[in-house]
Amino acid sequence: MYRLLFLVLLITLAAPATRAQHAGDMAGMAGMAMPKATSSAPGAAVKRLTLQGGWVAATPPGVSESAAYLTLQNPGPSAAVLVGASTPVAAHTMLMTSHTDAQKRVSMQPLNRLSIPAGGRGTFAPGQAHIMLSGLRRPLSPGTKVQLTLRFSDGSARTVSLLVRRAAP
Length: 169
Ligand SMILES: [Cu+2]
Hints:
By secondary structure, the protein is of the alpha+beta class.
């Protein structure tokens, strides 16, 4: 709880607009429909993606937020576009970018989509971007696993299993 208040305070101080966007994004996610598949082979690019080094930050009891980090490598000939995620352990899951200013204040912005280009990669890493888990339904203990379902713009989804860790590997 304290950490949540601290986070909200930081967001408010750093960028007043961010908090409103944050809330708006969360409200939008609740009623979001799955995008229709637009490709003749839906999920083809998504199936080729490989997960590299995914993990979720451990939380002590009483902390309601955490973040997941991962890299998706795309060896295929077409881009995959990540548009959202969900997990059974949290009420809300949001793609976000982080920015640290000269005063070391961290601000976050919702990320609507992350394109993983053909032959390239998409990365969520501390200090850059994260998949925010809020409204945690249980403390995340180191060594346990979290199932995270990633949703893509073609309507396909991939579920990955991520290790809970105290710190980045
Ligand atoms: Cu965040």
